[in-house]
Amino acid sequence: MGFEQNIRKVEPYVAGEQPKNPGVIKLNTNECPYPPSPLVKEAEGKIDYEKLRLYPDMNAEKLVDALAEYYQVKPSQVFVGVGSDDVLSMAFLTFFNGSLPVLFPDITYSFYDVWADLYRIPYKTCPLTEDFHIRKEDYLVPNGGIIFPNPNAPTGVLEEVSMIEEIIRANQDVVVIIDEAYIDFGGESVLPLIDKYENLLVVQTFSKSRAMAGMRIGYAMGNEKLIRYLKDAKFSFNSYTMNLPSIEMGTAAVKDDAYFKETTGKIIATRERVKKEMKKLGFFFTDSMSNFLFAGHENVPAGELFRALKENDIYVRYWNKDRISNRLRITIGTDEQMDRFLEFLRSYLNN
Ligand code: PMP
Fold first, then answer.
1. Mean pLDDT over all residues of the chain?
2. Is the pLDDT of residue 74 over 90?
3. pTM confidence score
4. Best of 109, 157, 203, 242 to mutate for ligand 1, by most ligand atoms within 8 A of CB?
5. Which residues have C-beta within 8 Å of that of residue 196, sequence separation ≥ 6?
6. Do residues 321 and 242 both lie within one domain?
7. 25 in Cβ contact with 315 (< 8 Å)
8. Residue 151 C-alpha to ligand 1 middle, in angstroms?
9. Ligand 1 center to 329 CA (angstroms)
10. What DSSP designation does 280 have?
11. Are residue 95 and residue 181 in the same domain, yes or no?
Protein backbone atom coordinates (compact mmCIF):
# COMPACT_ATOMS: atom_id res chain seq x y z
CA MET A 1 0.00 0.00 0.00
CA GLY A 2 0.99 3.65 0.20
CA PHE A 3 1.72 6.04 -2.65
CA GLU A 4 3.51 3.43 -4.72
CA GLN A 5 0.32 1.61 -5.66
CA ASN A 6 -0.66 4.40 -8.07
CA ILE A 7 2.68 4.73 -9.75
CA ARG A 8 3.26 3.68 -13.36
CA LYS A 9 6.08 1.20 -12.98
CA VAL A 10 8.20 0.54 -16.05
CA GLU A 11 11.33 -1.37 -16.86
CA PRO A 12 13.35 1.15 -18.87
CA TYR A 13 15.28 0.63 -22.08
CA VAL A 14 18.97 0.02 -21.51
CA ALA A 15 21.17 2.00 -23.90
CA GLY A 16 24.78 1.14 -24.72
CA GLU A 17 27.48 2.59 -22.51
CA GLN A 18 28.97 6.04 -23.14
CA PRO A 19 32.43 5.60 -21.60
CA LYS A 20 34.17 8.70 -20.21
CA ASN A 21 37.66 7.52 -21.16
CA PRO A 22 38.57 9.24 -24.47
CA GLY A 23 41.00 6.46 -25.41
CA VAL A 24 38.23 3.92 -25.96
CA ILE A 25 37.49 2.56 -29.44
CA LYS A 26 33.75 2.96 -29.32
CA LEU A 27 31.97 0.43 -31.49
CA ASN A 28 28.95 -0.10 -29.24
CA THR A 29 26.14 2.33 -30.12
CA ASN A 30 26.12 2.54 -33.93
CA GLU A 31 27.23 6.15 -34.06
CA CYS A 32 28.98 7.48 -37.16
CA PRO A 33 32.78 7.55 -36.72
CA TYR A 34 33.05 10.69 -38.88
CA PRO A 35 32.01 14.23 -37.92
CA PRO A 36 28.85 15.84 -39.34
CA SER A 37 29.02 17.85 -42.58
CA PRO A 38 31.13 21.03 -42.44
CA LEU A 39 27.93 22.89 -43.37
CA VAL A 40 26.59 21.90 -39.93
CA LYS A 41 29.50 23.64 -38.24
CA GLU A 42 28.96 26.68 -40.40
CA ALA A 43 25.26 26.75 -39.49
CA GLU A 44 26.16 26.49 -35.81
CA GLY A 45 28.40 29.56 -36.13
CA LYS A 46 25.52 31.53 -37.61
CA ILE A 47 23.02 30.80 -34.84
CA ASP A 48 21.81 34.09 -33.39
CA TYR A 49 22.27 33.58 -29.67
CA GLU A 50 19.93 36.46 -28.91
CA LYS A 51 17.14 34.40 -30.51
CA LEU A 52 17.48 31.72 -27.86
CA ARG A 53 15.27 33.80 -25.57
CA LEU A 54 12.35 32.97 -27.88
CA TYR A 55 10.56 29.64 -28.15
CA PRO A 56 11.62 27.74 -31.26
CA ASP A 57 9.30 27.19 -34.26
CA MET A 58 7.11 24.38 -32.98
CA ASN A 59 6.55 23.15 -36.52
CA ALA A 60 10.30 23.13 -37.26
CA GLU A 61 9.23 24.33 -40.70
CA LYS A 62 12.72 24.96 -42.04
CA LEU A 63 13.83 21.41 -41.30
CA VAL A 64 10.54 19.88 -42.47
CA ASP A 65 10.81 21.80 -45.77
CA ALA A 66 14.42 20.71 -46.28
CA LEU A 67 13.48 17.06 -45.69
CA ALA A 68 10.42 17.34 -47.95
CA GLU A 69 12.57 18.75 -50.74
CA TYR A 70 15.28 16.14 -50.29
CA TYR A 71 12.87 13.20 -50.31
CA GLN A 72 10.50 14.75 -52.89
CA VAL A 73 7.43 14.61 -50.65
CA LYS A 74 5.08 17.32 -49.39
CA PRO A 75 5.93 19.10 -46.12
CA SER A 76 2.56 17.85 -44.86
CA GLN A 77 3.93 14.30 -45.21
CA VAL A 78 6.84 14.93 -42.81
CA PHE A 79 6.94 14.83 -39.00
CA VAL A 80 10.11 15.65 -37.04
CA GLY A 81 11.10 14.81 -33.48
CA VAL A 82 13.90 14.62 -30.96
CA GLY A 83 15.65 11.58 -32.37
CA SER A 84 13.72 8.75 -33.96
CA ASP A 85 13.13 7.42 -30.44
CA ASP A 86 10.86 10.43 -29.85
CA VAL A 87 9.16 9.93 -33.22
CA LEU A 88 8.67 6.20 -32.63
CA SER A 89 7.39 6.75 -29.11
CA MET A 90 4.80 9.24 -30.44
CA ALA A 91 3.88 6.80 -33.20
CA PHE A 92 3.27 4.00 -30.67
CA LEU A 93 1.08 6.34 -28.63
CA THR A 94 -0.85 7.57 -31.66
CA PHE A 95 -1.27 4.54 -33.88
CA PHE A 96 -1.23 1.49 -31.62
CA ASN A 97 -4.45 2.16 -29.81
CA GLY A 98 -6.46 -1.01 -30.48
CA SER A 99 -7.14 -4.13 -28.49
CA LEU A 100 -5.40 -6.65 -30.78
CA PRO A 101 -1.67 -7.20 -30.27
CA VAL A 102 0.90 -5.12 -32.14
CA LEU A 103 3.35 -7.40 -33.94
CA PHE A 104 7.15 -7.17 -34.11
CA PRO A 105 10.05 -9.67 -34.36
CA ASP A 106 11.37 -11.54 -31.32
CA ILE A 107 14.85 -10.22 -32.05
CA THR A 108 14.66 -6.50 -32.76
CA TYR A 109 15.20 -3.01 -31.39
CA SER A 110 14.71 -3.49 -27.66
CA PHE A 111 12.84 -0.21 -27.21
CA TYR A 112 9.65 -1.52 -28.87
CA ASP A 113 8.49 -3.68 -25.97
CA VAL A 114 9.41 -0.87 -23.55
CA TRP A 115 7.09 1.62 -25.29
CA ALA A 116 4.38 -1.03 -25.57
CA ASP A 117 4.62 -1.65 -21.82
CA LEU A 118 4.78 2.07 -21.00
CA TYR A 119 1.61 2.83 -23.00
CA ARG A 120 -0.05 -0.49 -22.07
CA ILE A 121 -0.27 -1.63 -25.67
CA PRO A 122 -0.78 -5.38 -26.13
CA TYR A 123 1.91 -6.94 -28.32
CA LYS A 124 3.12 -10.26 -29.66
CA THR A 125 6.58 -11.08 -30.93
CA CYS A 126 7.07 -13.19 -34.06
CA PRO A 127 10.15 -15.43 -34.16
CA LEU A 128 12.64 -14.69 -36.90
CA THR A 129 13.89 -17.66 -38.94
CA GLU A 130 17.19 -19.38 -38.05
CA ASP A 131 19.03 -16.93 -40.33
CA PHE A 132 17.22 -13.97 -38.75
CA HIS A 133 14.76 -13.22 -41.55
CA ILE A 134 11.15 -12.12 -41.07
CA ARG A 135 8.53 -14.74 -41.86
CA LYS A 136 5.91 -12.88 -43.85
CA GLU A 137 3.08 -15.27 -42.85
CA ASP A 138 3.47 -14.25 -39.18
CA TYR A 139 2.23 -10.78 -40.16
CA LEU A 140 -0.74 -11.91 -42.23
CA VAL A 141 -2.98 -12.40 -39.18
CA PRO A 142 -5.36 -10.05 -37.35
CA ASN A 143 -3.30 -7.52 -35.36
CA GLY A 144 -3.27 -4.03 -33.84
CA GLY A 145 -0.37 -2.71 -35.89
CA ILE A 146 3.08 -3.76 -37.12
CA ILE A 147 6.57 -2.40 -36.60
CA PHE A 148 10.03 -3.61 -37.53
CA PRO A 149 13.34 -2.04 -38.52
CA ASN A 150 14.70 -2.57 -42.02
CA PRO A 151 17.54 -3.47 -41.90
CA ASN A 152 16.70 -5.08 -38.59
CA ALA A 153 18.70 -4.33 -35.46
CA PRO A 154 20.80 -5.86 -33.99
CA THR A 155 21.00 -8.39 -36.86
CA GLY A 156 21.68 -6.01 -39.77
CA VAL A 157 19.48 -8.22 -41.98
CA LEU A 158 17.73 -6.40 -44.84
CA GLU A 159 14.33 -7.50 -46.17
CA GLU A 160 13.16 -7.03 -49.76
CA VAL A 161 10.80 -4.13 -50.49
CA SER A 162 8.45 -6.53 -52.34
CA MET A 163 8.04 -8.68 -49.21
CA ILE A 164 7.43 -5.64 -47.00
CA GLU A 165 4.89 -4.36 -49.53
CA GLU A 166 2.94 -7.61 -49.24
CA ILE A 167 2.77 -7.11 -45.46
CA ILE A 168 1.62 -3.50 -45.86
CA ARG A 169 -0.97 -4.44 -48.49
CA ALA A 170 -2.43 -7.20 -46.32
CA ASN A 171 -2.73 -4.90 -43.29
CA GLN A 172 -4.54 -1.80 -44.53
CA ASP A 173 -6.74 -1.66 -41.43
CA VAL A 174 -3.76 -0.97 -39.16
CA VAL A 175 -0.64 1.21 -39.30
CA VAL A 176 2.60 -0.43 -40.42
CA ILE A 177 5.77 1.35 -39.25
CA ILE A 178 9.06 0.62 -40.97
CA ASP A 179 11.97 1.87 -38.86
CA GLU A 180 14.67 2.74 -41.38
CA ALA A 181 17.34 3.91 -38.91
CA TYR A 182 19.98 2.02 -40.93
CA ILE A 183 18.59 2.23 -44.49
CA ASP A 184 21.33 4.53 -45.83
CA PHE A 185 24.01 1.86 -45.65
CA GLY A 186 23.00 -0.06 -48.76
CA GLY A 187 19.30 -0.85 -48.31
CA GLU A 188 16.33 0.13 -50.46
CA SER A 189 13.79 2.35 -48.70
CA VAL A 190 10.04 1.69 -48.78
CA LEU A 191 9.49 5.47 -48.90
CA PRO A 192 8.07 5.42 -52.49
CA LEU A 193 5.19 3.32 -51.12
CA ILE A 194 3.79 6.10 -48.89
CA ASP A 195 1.73 7.46 -51.79
CA LYS A 196 0.34 4.01 -52.51
CA TYR A 197 -0.52 2.92 -48.96
CA GLU A 198 -2.17 5.27 -46.48
CA ASN A 199 -1.24 2.95 -43.60
CA LEU A 200 2.57 3.14 -44.04
CA LEU A 201 4.81 5.26 -41.82
CA VAL A 202 8.55 5.37 -42.60
CA VAL A 203 10.83 6.51 -39.76
CA GLN A 204 14.45 7.62 -40.22
CA THR A 205 17.13 9.38 -38.15
CA PHE A 206 20.07 11.80 -38.30
CA SER A 207 21.89 9.72 -35.66
CA LYS A 208 23.73 7.25 -37.89
CA SER A 209 24.17 8.19 -41.56
CA ARG A 210 24.13 11.93 -40.89
CA ALA A 211 26.52 11.70 -37.94
CA MET A 212 24.36 13.74 -35.57
CA ALA A 213 23.32 11.47 -32.70
CA GLY A 214 24.22 14.29 -30.33
CA MET A 215 21.70 16.70 -31.87
CA ARG A 216 18.76 14.27 -31.48
CA ILE A 217 16.87 14.57 -34.77
CA GLY A 218 14.51 11.97 -36.20
CA TYR A 219 11.63 12.10 -38.68
CA ALA A 220 8.72 10.18 -40.07
CA MET A 221 7.19 10.30 -43.54
CA GLY A 222 3.77 9.05 -44.50
CA ASN A 223 0.30 9.92 -45.68
CA GLU A 224 -0.87 13.43 -44.68
CA LYS A 225 -3.60 11.97 -42.50
CA LEU A 226 -1.11 9.90 -40.48
CA ILE A 227 1.16 12.92 -40.05
CA ARG A 228 -1.77 15.02 -38.86
CA TYR A 229 -2.70 12.44 -36.22
CA LEU A 230 0.92 12.26 -35.09
CA LYS A 231 1.07 16.04 -34.73
CA ASP A 232 -2.20 16.11 -32.76
CA ALA A 233 -0.71 13.66 -30.25
CA LYS A 234 2.62 15.49 -30.16
CA PHE A 235 0.99 18.88 -29.54
CA SER A 236 -1.01 17.30 -26.74
CA PHE A 237 2.22 16.18 -25.12
CA ASN A 238 4.91 18.85 -25.57
CA SER A 239 4.83 21.49 -28.31
CA TYR A 240 8.40 22.76 -28.23
CA THR A 241 10.52 19.66 -28.48
CA MET A 242 12.94 20.60 -31.27
CA ASN A 243 15.31 23.36 -30.24
CA LEU A 244 16.59 26.13 -32.48
CA PRO A 245 20.16 24.77 -32.96
CA SER A 246 18.79 21.35 -33.96
CA ILE A 247 16.51 22.92 -36.56
CA GLU A 248 19.29 25.07 -38.03
CA MET A 249 22.04 22.45 -37.97
CA GLY A 250 19.76 19.64 -39.10
CA THR A 251 18.65 21.71 -42.11
CA ALA A 252 22.30 22.29 -43.06
CA ALA A 253 23.03 18.55 -42.85
CA VAL A 254 20.21 17.69 -45.27
CA LYS A 255 21.59 20.17 -47.80
CA ASP A 256 25.03 18.51 -47.99
CA ASP A 257 24.18 15.45 -50.03
CA ALA A 258 27.72 15.03 -51.37
CA TYR A 259 29.12 14.71 -47.85
CA PHE A 260 26.31 12.35 -46.84
CA LYS A 261 27.04 10.04 -49.78
CA GLU A 262 30.79 10.19 -49.17
CA THR A 263 30.44 9.28 -45.47
CA THR A 264 27.98 6.43 -45.96
CA GLY A 265 30.10 5.17 -48.89
CA LYS A 266 33.20 5.04 -46.68
CA ILE A 267 31.34 3.14 -43.96
CA ILE A 268 29.98 0.61 -46.46
CA ALA A 269 33.48 0.05 -47.92
CA THR A 270 34.96 -0.46 -44.43
CA ARG A 271 32.12 -2.83 -43.50
CA GLU A 272 32.73 -5.04 -46.52
CA ARG A 273 36.48 -5.11 -45.88
CA VAL A 274 35.99 -6.02 -42.21
CA LYS A 275 33.59 -8.83 -43.19
CA LYS A 276 36.37 -10.43 -45.28
CA GLU A 277 38.96 -10.09 -42.52
CA MET A 278 36.66 -11.44 -39.82
CA LYS A 279 35.76 -14.43 -41.96
CA LYS A 280 39.46 -15.32 -42.15
CA LEU A 281 39.56 -15.21 -38.34
CA GLY A 282 36.77 -17.78 -37.95
CA PHE A 283 33.81 -15.47 -37.42
CA PHE A 284 30.35 -16.09 -38.83
CA PHE A 285 27.83 -13.28 -39.32
CA THR A 286 24.77 -12.06 -41.15
CA ASP A 287 25.29 -10.18 -44.41
CA SER A 288 24.68 -6.89 -42.63
CA MET A 289 23.43 -3.96 -44.73
CA SER A 290 23.74 -1.53 -41.80
CA ASN A 291 26.63 0.28 -40.09
CA PHE A 292 27.30 -2.66 -37.77
CA LEU A 293 28.08 -6.37 -37.93
CA PHE A 294 26.34 -9.09 -35.95
CA ALA A 295 29.02 -11.72 -35.48
CA GLY A 296 29.91 -14.83 -33.53
CA HIS A 297 33.06 -16.94 -33.48
CA GLU A 298 33.27 -20.65 -34.26
CA ASN A 299 35.31 -21.46 -31.11
CA VAL A 300 35.28 -18.59 -28.64
CA PRO A 301 32.03 -17.60 -26.87
CA ALA A 302 30.81 -14.06 -27.59
CA GLY A 303 30.60 -13.19 -23.88
CA GLU A 304 34.29 -13.97 -23.45
CA LEU A 305 35.27 -11.90 -26.49
CA PHE A 306 33.11 -9.02 -25.26
CA ARG A 307 34.94 -8.94 -21.92
CA ALA A 308 38.39 -9.31 -23.48
CA LEU A 309 37.70 -6.48 -25.93
CA LYS A 310 36.41 -4.25 -23.15
CA GLU A 311 39.48 -4.87 -20.99
CA ASN A 312 41.46 -3.59 -23.94
CA ASP A 313 39.31 -0.47 -24.34
CA ILE A 314 37.38 -1.72 -27.35
CA TYR A 315 33.65 -1.44 -26.66
CA VAL A 316 31.12 -3.49 -28.64
CA ARG A 317 27.57 -4.54 -27.70
CA TYR A 318 26.60 -7.90 -26.24
CA TRP A 319 23.23 -9.24 -25.04
CA ASN A 320 23.04 -12.32 -22.87
CA LYS A 321 19.61 -13.08 -24.35
CA ASP A 322 17.95 -16.10 -25.88
CA ARG A 323 19.07 -16.81 -29.49
CA ILE A 324 21.67 -14.02 -29.62
CA SER A 325 23.91 -14.77 -26.64
CA ASN A 326 26.72 -15.98 -28.89
CA ARG A 327 26.88 -12.83 -31.01
CA LEU A 328 28.49 -9.42 -30.77
CA ARG A 329 27.14 -6.30 -32.41
CA ILE A 330 30.09 -4.34 -33.73
CA THR A 331 29.59 -0.81 -35.06
CA ILE A 332 31.70 0.02 -38.10
CA GLY A 333 34.30 2.63 -37.11
CA THR A 334 36.99 4.33 -39.18
CA ASP A 335 39.44 2.11 -41.09
CA GLU A 336 42.06 2.84 -38.45
CA GLN A 337 39.74 1.86 -35.57
CA MET A 338 38.72 -1.32 -37.36
CA ASP A 339 42.37 -2.22 -38.02
CA ARG A 340 43.08 -1.94 -34.30
CA PHE A 341 40.00 -4.03 -33.57
CA LEU A 342 41.13 -6.72 -36.04
CA GLU A 343 44.68 -6.62 -34.73
CA PHE A 344 43.43 -7.27 -31.21
CA LEU A 345 41.28 -10.19 -32.40
CA ARG A 346 44.19 -11.72 -34.31
CA SER A 347 46.46 -11.69 -31.29
CA TYR A 348 43.72 -12.81 -28.87
CA LEU A 349 42.62 -15.73 -31.02
CA ASN A 350 46.21 -16.88 -31.58
CA ASN A 351 46.94 -17.17 -27.86
N1 PMP B 1 15.58 2.55 -34.30
C2 PMP B 1 16.58 1.66 -34.25
C3 PMP B 1 16.38 0.34 -34.92
C4 PMP B 1 17.76 1.96 -33.57
O5 PMP B 1 18.74 1.05 -33.48
C6 PMP B 1 17.92 3.22 -32.96
C7 PMP B 1 19.20 3.57 -32.25
N8 PMP B 1 19.24 3.20 -30.92
C9 PMP B 1 16.84 4.10 -33.02
C10 PMP B 1 15.70 3.75 -33.72
C11 PMP B 1 16.84 5.44 -32.33
O12 PMP B 1 17.82 6.31 -32.72
P13 PMP B 1 17.69 7.88 -32.48
O14 PMP B 1 16.70 8.13 -31.38
O15 PMP B 1 19.06 8.32 -32.12
O16 PMP B 1 17.22 8.44 -33.79
1. 97
2. yes
3. 0.98
4. 109
5. none
6. no
7. yes
8. 12
9. 14
10. H
11. yes
